[in-house]
Amino acid sequence: LVLVVDFGAQYAQLIARRVREAKVYSEIVPHTLPVAEMLAKKPKAIILSGGPSSVYEDGAPSLNGELFTGEVPVFGMCYGFQTMAQALGGKVDATGLREYGRTPVTVLEPGTLLAGMPTTHNIWMSHGDQVVAAPEGFTVLASTEVTPVAAFEDVARGYAGVQWHPEVLHSEHGQQVLEHFLWNIAGCRQTWTIGNIADEQIARIKEQIGTEGRAICGLSGGVDSAVAAAIVQKAIGDRLTCVYVDHGLMRKDETEQVERDFVAATGAKLIVVDAEKQFLDALAGVSEPEAKRKIIGREFIRAFEGAEIEVIKSAPEGTKVGFLVQGTLYPDVVESGHGAGTSTIKSHHNVGGLPEDLEFELVEPLRELFKDEVRAVGAQLGLPDVIVQRQPFPGPGLGIRIIGEVTRERLDILRDADAIAREEMTKAGLDGSIWQMPVVLLADVRSVGVQGDGRTYGHPVVLRPVTSEDAMTADWARLPYEVLEKISTRITNEVKEINRVTLDVTSKPPGTIEWE
Ligand code: XMP
């Protein structure tokens, strides 16, 4: 275990991922966690992240000397580098000189940390203050035009640091810097491999659920719930029941694909609830986006609870379905304040059958994992690419991609157009480079067109291809004209209700990715 101490930088999660890419398990802790509690976790090393503060500000987060007793190796980057220098008796100055962005660094002495790296290479900087004198016992390894001490190490005590951000892709040899620290200075072993991750999670879930427990898992068609279910299936076999609510708002053939591929890959017991009519009846006459979302959410809970009751009723005599599987990921855990341990969830049943509240203990096999690890574990467990590489798709499905009232007929039109767009994107090899491409049906808009010899009066669709890192911000994707042409021609030829294809060229912000 390596702890990444978060000083409030947006980089802490990225650092934790890079450490894991070096095959060493890492967790993020807030800098406010007392040092004694950090050490109680018995970390093999501690990494201090960058942060927005200056070590000079009043109340700037810092670490007291307790951390530097020589017991645990420590690596500092950016702000963490400066706090470390200060805590160990070096000198940090606000020289008024700043460095931002790509910066050439000169290696003065490679030492262990920078071994094998070119004498000058480019790294990514973002700082105002600088370390002007390294603490005693440290070797200065590198400098830049502005920063005399840009990297240092004290291998005997297991301390090292760099002023730059080795975790960002723009820093050349950044991953190597981290690996040299982890493997060669801190002596961490490379045990965090995909095979091990899967085995560890399966063992953990076995222990949590025990030999008698029964669990239920909601499948959405997305990667997280599918991988979570696959792990639990490996742990407890057919004491797991998966439930997939078909709300009728999925894309063409998607429900059949989930049913077929998921079951084939995992052998899991799957109940598909056909709730299309229930959802469409509830959505009839509604076109306001928030109202649609609320209805879909409410009907989903109803349908899922109905299935829960069936599963509970059909469990063998004397056994209890006490566990609910959820696909919570590590970033959710970090963002919600690092809560540890197991929690329970109450689900109130107002559907006929069982009158009382049901209490489930949560099973969260992905709580420690980042998304890319989830995909890798999924592939390791035999799930096909259509599931593990699936692009994001909103829970309310096509219900929020029809602008206007949602009806069966409109859904079928959109499904046909969307299927063509997805097929052409895949053919062009673009699935990996775009984040997602919603196809939106402007169901209440009609425009005049001409096709063959006749006038048409059909609906437009909007293509919304975007690139993004995390869906918080996004840019419209510059798709090749030939691909756009192919999609447009095919949609207008093959879907008779659609006579116009338009392209959304708005970034996020100000636009959101979805239209509703
Ligand atoms: P927006 O439209 O807010 O979307 O820019 C950001 C990302 O979230 C997806 N999205 C959802 N995902 N339930 C989900 O699971 C939802 O209700 C939902 N709404 C939007 C959207 O597809 C994009 O990836």
Query: Terminal Cα separation, in Å?
Result: 42 Å
Q: Ligands bound here?
A: xanthosine-5'-monophosphate
Average residue pLDDT: 92
Number of domains: 3
Total beta strand runs: 24
Number of helices: 14
Query: Biggest β-sheet, characterized?
Result: 9 strands, mixed
Helix content: 25-40%
The proportion of strand residues reads: 15-25%
Binding site for ATP: 220-226
Organism: Nocardioides jejuensis
Active site: 78 (nucleophile), 165, 167
Function: Catalyzes the synthesis of GMP from XMP.
Mind explaining what this structure looks like?
The protein is an alpha/beta fold. The chain has three domains: 2-185, 3-Layer(aba) Sandwich (Rossmann fold); 194-388, Rossmann fold (3-Layer(aba) Sandwich), CATH 3.40.50.620; 397-503, GMP Synthetase, Chain A, domain 3, CATH 3.30.300.10. 33% of the residues lie in helices and 23% in strands. It has helices spanning 12-21, 35-40, 79-87, 174-185, 194-209, 223-236, 254-266, 276-283, 289-314, 330-335, 371-380, 385-388, 408-427, 481-494, and strands at 2-6, 26-30, 45-48, 74-77, 91-93, 99-107, 120-127, 130-133, 139-143, 151-154, 159-162, 214-219, 240-246, 269-274, 321-325, 344-347, 358-363, 402-403, 439-442, 447-451, 454-463, 466-467, 475-476, 498-503. A nine-stranded mixed beta sheet has the order 2-1-3-4-11-10-9-6-7, sandwiched between helices. Strand 1, helix 1 and strand 2 (26-30) form a beta-alpha-beta unit. Helix 6 (223-236) crosses helix 11 (371-380) and helix 8 runs antiparallel to helix 9 (289-314). The longest helix has 26 residues, at 289-314. The protein is globular, with a radius of gyration of 27 Å. Residues 348-355 have low confidence and may be disordered. The site of xanthosine-5'-monophosphate has 10 residues, from loops.
